[in-house]
Every structure is written in C-alpha cells, then in structure tokens.
Amino acid sequence: MSNTLSEKREVWKTIIIFLILLTALSSIAYYAILKLNPTSIYIGALMMSPALASLFTLKIIKRPISSLPWSLKELKYLRLSYITPILYVSIAYALIWLFAFGNLINTKKILQWSNELGIESTNQTLVIVVMTLLLLTVGVIKNLGSTLGEEIGWRGFLIFELRKVMSFKALTIVSGIIWAIWHFPIIDLMYISSGNLLLHMGAFTIMIIGISVILAYYTFKSNSLWPAALYHSVHNIYIQKICTPLTITNDNTTFWIDEYGFMIPIITTIFAIYFWRKAEKENL
C-alpha cells in the first residue's frame, strides 16, 4: 500500500481516470447493444472496454504498457485457474439437479450437439463427452480473447492500483462491486420483463464478489493476468455452453440456475471465504 498522502492521491487519480474512460467506452458499446442489436460483435466490444480503458490510462499517466503483469512464471496457477471454476460450477449444478431445481438431460440440446458433431444422437453419452471436451479446450481458447479484454482491465490493472490504497479484503469487494455494476445493463436487458430483475442482479453481484476474491488471490500469487483470463473463460464456457444448456428448466429453475440464480453465488461465497482466509494467512 502507498504510504504518503501524495502517493495515495496519485493512485486515486489514476483509478478515477480509469473509471471515467471505462464508463465512456462501455457506454458506446452499451448503446450499440441496447439500442441497435445485442449481437456478439457489440458484446465483444464491451468486453474489450476494460482493457482499452487501462491502456489509455497508462498512456495518460505516462506509464508503459509493459508495466502490466504480462509474464507468468508458475504454470500451476494456470492449472488452478482452470480447475477451480469447473469445481464450483460442478458442485452448484449437481445440487441444482439433486434438488430438482432443474433436471438432466435436455435432449434438444443433445440433438443439436449431435448434428454439429456428426455423431448419432442415440449415443448421448458420447455426444456429451465429446462436446464437453471440445468446449473446455477449443471453446475456452476461442473465448480467451474476449475474457482477456476484461481481465487486462480488472485484474491486470485495477486491482493492482487498488492494492496500493486498500487491504486485500477491501479491494476484492470494491473491484467486485465495480465489475458487477458494469454488467447491470446487460442483466436489465435480459430480465427487465421477468419481474425478478433485482433478484437476478443481487445474485449476480454476490457471485461476482466471490469470484473477485478468488481471481485476486490467483493474480497476486502469480503476479500475472493470465490465470484470471483463463479462469474467466472456463467459468463462462462451462456455465453458458455446457451446464445450463444441458439442464431442463422448471418453475423453480430461474431462481437457482446460471450466473443469475442463487446456487452458484452460494458456492462461490464458500470458496471466497476459503481464499480470503488463505490470503490472510499468507499476508497477501
């Protein structure tokens, strides 16, 4: 953490510049998403906004882009960042299926996958295994460009600035809240007509804060933004492309499933408490 008052002022000035640029750039992308068409290209532009905001901020404060944590010395943090989201999402969906908040297996999705893969739909197990393996490898790598756009800003830049003026616990909460609020227009677009908008926003915010703890831990331990980018990609792919599509919905599903229901936030909160305590013991 920064010691002198002048150093802290400079840090806060840098953070404010970043947030102003982030708001301006994100507003352009959100206008296209909300007013024109919510296509993947506009969403991709939105996901690049944190990276661009951080790069422009570095230019303004005359700090080199090389100052961001680009390098990675310990590959174990990539492995952990790959495994962790798979673990907590698997636990969450196992509980969803166990308590019948959703059921397996969505045969329409299996049929769609079988057509894409060219495998007979009668062999459901093979279709699921092959598609899951492909999504968690090829799909994750393809999605990495988008998540990197976010993580250069969030973990590569913002949390390192917050670390200069805040404790580990405080910066994870603050960065998590900023990250969650940044998503709110998308959630509003998705759920404004459902009557449960605040519920979904609340659930998502809890999940994001929990994830922010884990990502901050892996980022600071590795001193690299790459574990966060990989983690983010795996999290998105495993939930959005595998577990949610395979689940048959019922009347209770919307309150529990996906990133906007409460099961994943509950599990990520438990994980976050573990990483919070771990960070405290390690004086992170």
Summarize the structure in words:
There is one protein chain. The protein has 284 residues and is mainly alpha-helical. The chain has one domain (72-281). The protein contains 9 helices and 2 strands; from the N terminus they run αααβαααααβα. Strands 1-2 form a two-stranded antiparallel ribbon. The chain starts with a helix and ends with a helix.
How widely separated are the two ends?
11 Å
Average pLDDT taken over every residue: 95
Query: Which value, in Å, is the CA radius of gyration?
Result: 20 Å
Shape label: globular
The total number of structural domains is 1
Largest sheet: 2 strands, antiparallel
- Class by helix and strand content? mainly alpha
Which blocks of ≥5 consecutive residues have pLDDT under 50?
none
Helix content: over 70%
Number of helices: 9
* Order of H and E elements: HHHEHHHHHEH
Q: How are the strands of the largest sheet arranged?
A: 1-2
Count of strand segments: 2
Strand content: under 5%
Features:
single chain; 284 residues; mainly alpha; two-stranded antiparallel sheet; 76% helix
